[in-house]
Amino acid sequence: MIDNPILTLKRDIDEYLQWMLSSGYSFSTCQTYRNELNSFVLFIIQKQIDQDNIFTLYTLKKFQNDTQTYTGPAVRGLWQYLFDQKRIHQPIDPPHPRLPDPYEDYLLYYNQIRKVRPYQLARIRKVLCAFHDYLEGHNIKLSLIRIEQIDAFLAEFFTGFSPNTRTTYRTYIRGFLKYLHYPRKIIRKDLGPLVVGARQVAQSKPPKFLRANEIKRLFDSFDFSSFTDIRNYALVQLAYGMGLRPEEISLITLDDISFAQSELTLTKRKNDRPVKLPLPENILKAITAYIIGARPKSNHRRLFLNLVAPYRPISAGSVGQHITECMRKAGLPGSAYWLRHTYAQNLLEAGSSVYEIKEMMGHVTINSSEKYLNIHIELMRKVIFDEEL
C-alpha cells in the first residue's frame, strides 16, 4: 500500500518539529515554522503538486512568490532534515563554488581548531558565501572593509531570521573578522567586537524542569502493556536518570552497553569527548526489559528501533517525540529536554559543582552549565538568606 503523499508530508512535518524542540529550538520558533509548513501543505494541495516535485527549488520559489511574504526557512529546514535522514535524494543547495583563499583558509583553520561537525561548518560557509557575494556586488575590498558596511550586509542578510539565529550568525562573522586581523593580518583592526545586535532585555530564560511529584506521575503512567510502553520507559529513564540528549539516546548501540560493568559508553557527544558513565540499576533493568521483551529481532546494532517493519534505528527526532508523548499521556507539559534539565537540577541539589555538571551533561563550555544555577530556588534561598531547608 502506497502512502498518501500529503499524509506522509504531514507526518514528516510533525517529526521535524519534534526534532526541533528536542534540539533546543524555542517554542515560538517551532510555532512559527509550523504555521509556515501548514501553509506549504495547503499550497501543495491547491497546486496539485505530485510527490516527486514537492521538494524542488521551483516549488519553493513558487511558494514564496504566491504567499507574497518572506517565507522559506521552515520549508528549507524540513528539506534539509529529510535529506539528512535519506528520505529525499535531492539536496536543497548545490555544492558551493570555491571561495577566495581567505575564506577557504579560514574554514580550514576553524575546522582544525574547533573540530566542528560538517553541518556547522556548512552553516559558516553559507554566511561567508553571502558575505563574499555582498562585498563583490558592492565593489568592496575585503582588506578595506568598514564596520558600517558589515552592518549593512547583516541587515540585508538577516531578513526573516529569528533573534537566536541572528546571534549565531553574528558569532560566525566575528570569528572570521578576528581571523582576518590575526593571524592573517588582512585588516588592520579586529572589527569583530563591533558586530553587535540590538540589546535584548529579559531574553534569558532558565531551563524548564519537572518537580518530584511530576516525575512520580510520569513513571506511574507506564502500564507496560505494549512493546511501545516498554521501549518508551527505557527512553524516559535514560533522559531523566542520565540527562542524555535525544541524539545521544538514538546513537546508543548494543556494543556501548557493558552489562557486567554496569557502564554505558557514549562515543558521540556534543563536546566531542567520548565518556563512560555508570548505568544505575533501574536504568539497566529498563534497557534489559526492552531488549528481551520488546526489541525487534534485527541485524541493526543500534539499541532503539522502530517497532513496525522495516525495523530501522529511530532518529533523535523520534526519541524526542516518543518522550514528549509519554509526558503528554501523564498530563505534563514540556519536552525531552525538560527531563535533561531535571537531571541537572538533581545534580545541583546533590551538591555537584558546576564543573561536574558540565562533564556529566557533556557541555562544550561552562556557560552552558552555569544557567542551571538559576533554577535551584531552594539552594538560592539557602545561599542568599542563610536558611536551613
List the helices and strands and how they pair.
Blueprint: H1 5-22, H2 27-47, H3 57-67, H4 73-84, H5 101-114, H6 118-137, H7 147-157, H8 163-181, H9 212-220, H10 227-241, H11 246-250, E1 257-258, E2 263-266, E3 275-278, H12 281-293, H13 316-329, H14 336-349, H15 354-361, H16 366-370, H17 377-385
Report on this structure.
- With 389 residues, the protein is an all-alpha fold.
- The protein has 3 domains: 5-84; 101-194, Tyrosine recombinase, N-terminal domain (DNA polymerase, domain 1), CATH 1.10.150; 212-337, hpI Integrase, Chain A.
- The chain contains 17 helices and 3 strands.
- It has helices at residues 5-22, 27-47, 57-67, 73-84, 101-114, 118-137, 147-157, 163-181, 212-220, 227-241, 246-250, 281-293, 316-329, 336-349, 354-361, 366-370, 377-385; strands at 257-258, 263-266, 275-278.
- A 3-stranded antiparallel sheet has the order 1-2-3, with no helix packed on it.
- The radius of gyration is 23 Å and the shape is globular.
- The model is unreliable at 379-389 (pLDDT under 50).
